[in-house]
TrEMBL record:
Organism in which the protein naturally occurs: Phoenix dactylifera (Date palm)
Basic and acidic residues bias (residue ranges): 141-150
Positions of the UniProt region annotated as Disordered: 132-159
PANTHER family assigned: DUF4228 DOMAIN PROTEIN-RELATED
A Pfam family assignment: PADRE
Gene: LOC103724372
Name of this chain's protein: Uncharacterized protein LOC103724372
Amino acid sequence: MGICTSCEAVAAAVTTVATAKVIFTDGELREYDRSVRVSHVLQKDPTCFVCDADVMEIDGFVSAVGGGEELRPGNLYFLLPRTMLKHRLHAEDLAALAVRASSALMKAAPAGERIRRGATVSPLVFNVGSGEGTAAGGEVRAADEEEGKKPNKKRRGIGRKFAAELSAIPE
C-alpha cells in the first residue's frame, strides 16, 4: 500500500541506449543510436576521415574506418583531417584528442551527470633525477642556493623520497 513503483518501470527509465559517438574537428559531439555508415558521417565534411578511438595508440599510425562500415554502438570515433591519415601519433596528439573528447562529452552530458565545472585534474609529476637537497618536485630551495649551504636532510617534508619501502615476511 502507499506509494509504490514497479522495479520494471524504474529499470526501463534507467536503461540507456548505447550510441556511437563521433567527435568532429570543431569539437561537436554527435551521437548515433541507430546503425550509421561512415559514408553518412563524412557527408558533413568530405575532406576528413573517420578514425576509431579504440585503435589509436602512441607512436602508431592513424588509420581510417572504411566508408562502407557501420559505426559500432558504444565506440568513440574522431573525424580528422585527411592530412593526418597515415600520420604517426605522438603522445601530444593523443592528449589533444583526449582533451577534445572530454570537452565534447562534458558539454553533451545532462546537467545532473556533469562533474563540477571548477574541478580540475592535474597530473602529479616527479623529477626522475631528483637527488638530495631537492624538494619533492626536484627543484633546489632558493634559501639553500643563496646561502651556499648544503641542504639539511632533517627538514620535514622536503627532499623526502617517495620510493616504497618493501620488506619480505618469512612464512
